[in-house]
Amino acid sequence: MKDIFWLVSKTLRTTFRSKKNIILYLITPLAGIFIALLAYGGQDKVTTIGVVDHDKGIISAETIAFLRGLDHLKVEEIKDTSVTNKLTSGSIESVVTFEQGYSESVLAGKPDHIDITSIKGESVTGFIKTYLYQYIDNLTVIAAAVDGDSDQFMRMYNDYRHADFQLKTTALKDSSTSKNMTYMTVGFLIMIMMYSANNLSEIILAEKENRTYFRLLSTPVTAQKYIFSNVIVNMIVMIVQAVATLSLLSFVFHIDLNMSLWKALVVMIIFSLIAVGLSLVIVAFSNSRKSASGLSILLITPTAMLSGCFWPIEIMPKSIQKISEFLPQRWTLDTLTKLQEGHDFGSLNLNILILSAFAAAFFLVAIYKFSRNNSAKSFI
Fold first, then answer.
1. CA angle 206, 212, 215 (to 5 degrees)
2. CB–CB of 240/192 below 8 Å?
3. Where are the bilayer-spanning segments (predicted)?
């Protein structure tokens, strides 16, 4: 035990001796938070739209008033000649144009003469259409009830607006943004943890290359203790990365994880074992640090992409989604997603079992390869 403690302290001193390693292992994992903030931090902003009213009717005026009443929407009446300039400059994100005949088409029960334009596409127009078309459908129903009589329509419409019944609304918290930010942050954290684990395991190869490893074996230190101490250091760094990232996400940036912090940490600790096990497999099959680094790049980045660490897995083809089911990163993200949806650990036994199986398989492969190493002074 004393030998292992000495090896752990030696490896930690070696690892954090340079500022470069401090940045690599402790600062880089936080990059996912800032990327998530850039990607999703501005989703609650107010959308500014322009309105061009060629119709000048009462119904078009009421429709514009309805748009003004929508939350997260700022309406600005503009002239037809300034539409292009305002769209291209970004001062407005969409333009709703009511052409001549809009009011008559609504009274006739066939809404027409309305156009929605945006250079940002469906991401902006979809939000406007959802509310606007539903409102116009309500107007069409009233018009059908009065058989197109404009005076009777306005009386019924005013009665509809000033009805005696009241509707109490309660705003529900939109958790989609925080879930997306958590997902992206954890996705980048997973990739960085895997690279960090590989770099720490490469210390084995580095000390073998500079003959430090062989000098250590001339002392009471055994190869098994040496490997085990490297695993302990690896796990310490992985756990610190997970705790620091998730804690900052929750307590500093106040982003709701939509699950208990300890549950997320348990999943990430299990993944830490997977990352360390895979790093040992890479080291076991490598003869030098360069080959280990090349093999890690070949394995980690593509599998992270296939697993959905950088984007939602749902946007990828079904064939790619099937491939991702054989990757531990995918199961880690799937477990965290289900925890966000309200599942407890009792219902996620299969996920936890699969993650544990990945970790066990990698460690067994690494142990087998080390034990079959026939080179002089083999690891085990």
1. 150
2. no
3. 21-40, 183-205, 226-255, 261-285, 292-313, 348-368
Measured CA to CA in angstroms, residue 294 lies from 21, 41, 179, 285 at distances of 19, 35, 33, 12
* Those residues with Cβ within 8 angstroms of residue 25's Cβ, 6 or more apart along the chain or in another chain: 15, 16, 196, 199, 237, 240, 241
What CA–CA distance (Å, rounded) separates 124 from 229?
A: 54
In contact, 92 and 86? CB cutoff 8 Å: yes
Domain match, 16 and 59 both: no
Q: Is 347 helix (H, G, I), strand (E, B) or coil?
A: helix
Q: Which of 137, 161, 185 is the last residue of a domain?
A: 161
Total residues found in the chain within this entry: 380
Q: How many CB atoms within 10 Å of residue 116? A: 16
Candidates 304, 293, 302; CA nearest to 199 is: 293
Q: How confident is the model at residue 271 (pLDDT cuts 50, 70, 90)?
A: very high
Task: Indicate if 156 and 180 belong to the same structural domain.
Answer: no
Q: What radius of gyration, in Å, describes the C-alpha atoms of the chain?
A: 30
Identify the residue whose tokens are 């709701």. Answer: 256
Edge-first strand listing for the sheet containing 94-98 = 73-77, 47-53, 94-98, 114-117
Please tell me whether residues 342 and 286 are part of one structural domain: yes
User: What whole-number distance in Å separates Cα of residue 96 and Cα of residue 92?
Assistant: 11
Number of domains in the chain: 2
Residue 233 lies in a domain: yes
Looking at the structure, tell me whether residues 358 and 217 fall in a common domain: yes
Distance, in Å, from the CA atom of 355 to the CA atom of 308, rounded to the nearest integer, reads 16
Which residue reads 């001549």 in tokens? 100
Q: Is 94 a domain residue?
A: yes
Model confidence band, residue 41 (pLDDT cutoffs 50, 70, 90): low
Q: How far apart are CA 279 and CA 362, in angstroms?
A: 9
139 and 220 in one domain? no
